[in-house]
Amino acid sequence: MHLHPEHSKLVVALVYHYDELVSYVRRRFGDQHFARDVVHDVCLEIMERPPQLAVQTPMAFLRKLSRHRAIDRYRQYQTQQSHLNQLQQTAEHAHQIDGERVMHFVQRLEALKRIIEALPARQRQVFLLHRLHDMPQQEIADALGISRNMVTQHFNKAMGSIQRQWAGL
Q: How confident is the model over 76-93, as a mean pLDDT?
């Protein structure tokens, strides 16, 4: 790979000041491994997507780029930790579910299944295609050979019937 002379200066500055950049990131974020990963990311970014404009002060540019990459990585880490914590809480909650609640859920699910099965054929078909298979109404109309307006009417009737019967449970 052949670099433009301006980009070569930036790469040379990165190599020459590597340890200084790692220390700069480590001082702000407190972890040597994290800092090395950030500076590595900066190096890759410069190699893969060099700046479009000439860099007048390479070290200032590298510090700023390193700080931004560190912030991005830190935010990504925080987001991942948040998701992992939510998953752990969900898993802990799942162990607390008792048999009565599970049985109640299964009974309600079976009741909903019976309500849907009792719908007239066309209403049931439109409802399932739209809600279960996430088909847009126009695709349903094309597949069933009916107008989009009829799809809307069948769907609305199905929803109304389901809501009335569900409320009566």
A: 81
Tokens at residue 162, please? Answer: 């389901």
| pLDDT tens column, 135-169 | 889 989 998 999 999 999 999 999 999 999 988 87
Q: Do the Cβ atoms of 46 and 11 come closer than 8 Å?
A: yes
Q: How far apart are CA 169 and CA 111, in angstroms?
A: 8
Question: What is the C-alpha separation between 157 and 13, in angstroms, rounded?
Answer: 70
CA angle 18, 23, 24 (to 5 degrees): 95
pTM as predicted: 0.49
Contact 42, 65 (CB under 8 A): yes
Spatial contact of 57 and 13, defined as CB atoms under 8 Å apart: no
Burial class (CB in 10 A: 0-12, 13-18, 19+), 90: exposed
Which backbone phi and psi does 136 adopt, to 5 degrees? -65, 155
